[in-house]
Specification:
- It comes from Actinophytocola oryzae.
- One of its GO terms (biological process) is negative regulation of DNA-templated transcription.
- It holds the Pfam family TetR_C_46.
- By secondary structure, the protein is mainly alpha-helical.
- It is built from 9 helices and no strands.
- It has a domain at about 55-185: Tetracycline Repressor, domain 2, CATH 1.10.357.
């Protein structure tokens, strides 16, 4: 194996282990054992458990942020943007369940890109910009865009955590219900939002 192939193998093994056991439950010994290498190989590539964990978290954060940014990048009706963002998060949860488990689990080690909370704040900032324009054009106070963006992003993120384990209903239906609640509010919920 080349050095880069070995590094990737160790990251893949560590990612699975961190998702299963969390940071505290994983060990360099187990990473090495599962990768069929000696502990010094892990230390050589990452300096220890904290180093490999930081790389795994950074990769997951970049992956999720790229998906969310892409979902919000094109101009569209705000309801469509909300639906795109919800589906993007649920796509990530579905396609990278291990990565999502790692991100939402508390850890004593901060990654270079921050924490899941800081990632959600980055996404909320993008949503705030979109909402601010929409609020202004509709005569609402644009200063409230920050509050609404935090509420929307938090609602979608917590629902993503719940859906990670239950996987029902299907993600398009979950996204439709999130959009229904956030768009129509409790007093104007549609009986059957369209997915």
């Amino acid at each position: 194996m080349t050095g880069e192939e070995r590094r990737q193998q160790l990251l893949d093994v560590a990612r699975t282990l961190f998702a299963e056991k969390g940071f505290d439950g994983a060990s360099v010994e187990e990473i090495a054992h599962r990768a069929n290498v000696s502990k010094p190989v892990v230390y050589e590539h990452f300096g220890g458990k904290e180093g490999v964990y930081a790389v795994v978290v950074d990769r997951e954060m970049h992956n999720l942020l790229a998906k969310m940014t892409s979902a919000l990048a094109e101009e569209a009706h705000p309801r469509m943007l909300l639906e795109r963002a919800a589906v993007a998060l649920l796509d990530y949860v579905e396609g990278s369940a291990d990565g999502f488990r790692i991100l939402v689990r508390a850890s004593p080690v901060a990654s270079a890109t921050g924490t899941f909370s800081s990632l959600l704040n980055d996404i909320a900032s993008q949503v705030e910009d979109i909402l601010g324009v929409q609020f202004s054009s509709r005569g609402y106070d644009p200063k409230l865009a920050a509050l609404y963006s935090q509420a929307l992003v938090g609602m979608v993120a917590l629902t993503g955590q719940w859906w990670l384990d239950v996987r029902k209903p299907r993600k398009e239906e979950v996204a439709a219900h999130l959009v229904n609640l956030s768009w129509n509010g409790l007093s104007h919920l549609e009986n059957g939002p369209v997915a």
